[in-house]
Structures are given as structure tokens and as C-alpha cells.
Amino acid sequence: MATTQIRMEKPKPNVWPMRLWYLLLGVMLLVGAYGMWQTLWHGLAVTNLTDRVPWGLWITHDLSAIALGAGAFTFSAVVYLFRIKRFEPIARMAVFVGFLGYSSAMLALAMDIGRPDRFYHPLIYWNVHSVLWEITLCVILYSTVLIIEFVPIVLESRFFNGRPRARAFGHMLHKLTPVMAAVGLGLSLLHQSSLGATYGVLSGREIWFKPSMPVLFILSAVAGGVSLTLLVTIVVSKLSGRELIDKFLRRDIARLAAFALLAYLYLKMWDWAATSYYSHAPGTADALLRLQATTPYTQSFWIIEVFLGILVPVVILLNRPLRRQTGLLIFALVLVIVGVVVNRWNVTLSGLTVPPQWSPGVLGNVVATPYFPSWVEVFVSLGILAYALLVLTLGVKYLPLFRKTAVAEH
Question: Do residues 376 and 40 make contact, with C-beta atoms less than 8 angstroms apart?
């Protein structure tokens, strides 16, 4: 008897979710482009920034993006300097996320400085007494390191099939990875700590003036950067239907984030106790009282930063039954990211919205200077966020970000 072969057609994938995603990102990009044009044409007058509050949403975006991109130097150091090879499958994704974080930060800075055409001035006019000058050089140099680490990944994509010279150039750059990891670790530690020192050295702003700020910025950046890298990996795994890293590596990364959070919490609590519990220096006490009177600073500090941003994630990340539930793990990682962003918002604005007692025309009469981002500021931030999400989506789709040797989780 003749046998009849029945062809089973594969169900066509539903393309509408991705189309809607690209449509959303396209609208956000257009909105951001309009906000950027308004800023470049009219200047910072279209923002709600003032002489008393010169830093706002864009600097928060900048600090958050740099902190959340810290997974790049963390995993590069772990893999190539400390030789812990089991973290290697996620190193490329960490570099990619770091590249997106730093490029997003530079876009925000280009809008915030008011004169982006003068971006090269720190390279020519050296102000060695300025912490911001040192940060500028470190960000430029570390961004160069990230590009050198990222180019080999691009050159290994299928777009360069049949181009042996490009592949050879990529392999040559890849051999520099251990050197770049060492240089990148130094540069990243320098500017992550210097971002905190930007606030910590300001003796005229009592609420900021403290030596712990540089270390707090480093520890929170490590926790946030590691968490974002793991979060992106898990989400991509779920959307693609394949495990990109095994369960043991996921456990180790979760523990690394949790231990960084615990170190951050330890120092943060001593910092709080030294300035607000055991000591009541007049300047700091007055600044905190005026801040608490007109802003939700206390609630955001204890509820979002400490409880939701540190304690809850630590419990989930260090508890095996909770950590093995993917939904709870994603929830914990999101909380860590939110905690870092809120911390950067509080640090950026808390010392500025409380005018110093010696400020001309203030003399204690102003409790806090109001600030709320203008629609232009919000539009620009949405555009920068859309840029990062679009490049992330395209990178995950077209670039070899994960090693094929990743073991499937059983």
C-alpha cells in the first residue's frame, strides 16, 4: 500500500507584538527628537532647571545609566582578571549593556550641558582641580574601552560572513580583552567613585558632604549593573524560548548582586547613623528637616531605597526556593534597578532643593526650592530610553551575544 506523507506546516509566528514594540519605540524616538530639537534651538530655557537647581532629570538619567552599565567592568574583571571562567557566557551581554548605558548617559549629558558643541573643551582646557573634569576624561576613555570590547562582537555577526579581514581585525581586538579589562576596571572605579565624590566634597551642601559617597556609588553601581545584565538575559531567554545561561551561573550572578547589596546596605546604614542618628550637626540637621517638610525624601529613602531596593531583593536572591521562581527573580532584579535609580534621583536633587542658609536672599526663608521636570526634559529622556531599548532589541536579534556552549537548565 502506498503511504501518504502529510506535511505539517509550522505555525507562523505572531509578528504583531514585535511590530507594536517597534512602533512604540519609534513614537518615543520621534518625541525625544522633538525635545532635543527644542533644547538645541531654544537652550535650557525650555527646561525647569534654574540657578538654584541646575541638575534635574537628565543628570539623574545620566547617573542611573552609568550605574546600570557597571556590569561591564564587573564581569570583565571577574572573567579576565580573576579568571573565574564560569561567568564568561554572560560577559558579552554585560559589555553590550555597558555600552548602551554609557552611550545613553552621553546623550543625556549632551542635552544637559547646554552647549554640546563645546563637548571637547575638557580635553583641551584641563582643570585638574575639578572632580567633574576627571569624570569627563574617565567616561571618554572608558567609553573607548567599551567600544574596543564591543567591536569584535559586531564583527562576529552574520553581516560580516565572507569578510575575513574584518573577522581577523575582530580577533586581533579580542586578544586585547584582558588588557582592556584591567584598564576598564581602573577607569570605571575612578569615575564611579568620582561621581559620588562630586557631591561628597561639597562642604557648602551639608546634606552631601561626607567621605562615604564615593564608595556608596561604587557598591550600588555594581549591584545595579549586575542585576540589569542578569535581568536582560532572563527576559531574552524567555522571549526566545531557550536558556542562554545555566541555572548555576544564574545562581552565582544572583548571589553576586545580593552580596554587593549587603555591602552597600552596611555602609549606607553607618552613613545614615553617623549623620542623622548619632550626630545632629546643625547644617545637616537643618537641611534634612527642611527637606522632609516639603518633599517625600524620607519615604523614598526608607521605603524605596532601603526596603524595596535592598532588603526585599536580598531575601529573594539569597533564598533558593524563591530565587528559582523566575517571576520572583525578575521582580527582585527590577526592584534593585528601581532602588538605584531612586537613589540617584535623591542624591542629585536632595542637596539642591534645600538652599544653603548662607545663600543670598534665602537666610532660611525658603524651605525647599521646587523642581519638576518640564515636558521637554521628559520627552528627551523618553527618546534616550527608546534609543537604548531599540539598540538592545536589535543587538539581541542580530549579534552573537551569548556563547553556544551555554548549558540548558533542567
Answer: no
In contact, 68 and 225? CB cutoff 8 Å? yes
Q: pLDDT at position 1, please?
A: 46
C-alpha to C-alpha distance for 322 and 228, rounded to whole angstroms: 19
* 390 and 107 Cβ atoms separated by less than 8 Å: no
Task: List CB contacts of 105: < 8 A, sequence separation 6 or more.
Answer: 61, 62, 63, 65, 66, 69, 139
Return the SS3 of 384: helix
pLDDT digits (tens, 9 = 90+) for 226-253: 999 999 999 999 988 888 888 899 999 9
DSSP 62-84: HHHHHHHTTHHHHHHIIIIIS--
Q: What are the grid coordinates assigned to 304, written together?
A: 524605596
Spatial contact of 196 and 131, defined as CB atoms under 8 Å apart: no
Q: With bands split at pLDDT 50, 70 and 90, how would you rate the model's confidence at 116?
A: confident
DSSP state of 159: G
Nearest Cα residue to 263 out of 303, 219, 300: 219
The total of other beta-carbon atoms located within 10 Å of residue 331's CB is 14
**Averaged over 121-138, what is the pLDDT?**
90
Q: Backbone phi, then psi, for 219, in 5-degree steps? A: -65, -40
Q: What are the boundaries of each domain within the chain? A: 31-398
Q: In this model, does residue 405 exceed pLDDT 60? A: no
Cell output for 375 = 515636558
31-398: which CATH number, 3.40.640.10, 1.20.1630.10, 3.40.980.10, 3.30.565.10?
1.20.1630.10
pTM, full prediction:
0.90
Average pLDDT over residues 52-71: 91
Q: Pick from 60, 57, 58: which is nearest to 344 by CA?
A: 60
Structure confidence at residue 336 (pLDDT): 97
Of 8, 148, 155, 62, nearest to 345 (Cα)? 62
The residue type found at 157 is S
According to the model, what pLDDT value does residue 9 have?
A: 56
Q: Report the pLDDT value the prediction gives residue 97, as an integer from 0 to 100.
A: 94
Sequence letter at residue 40:
L
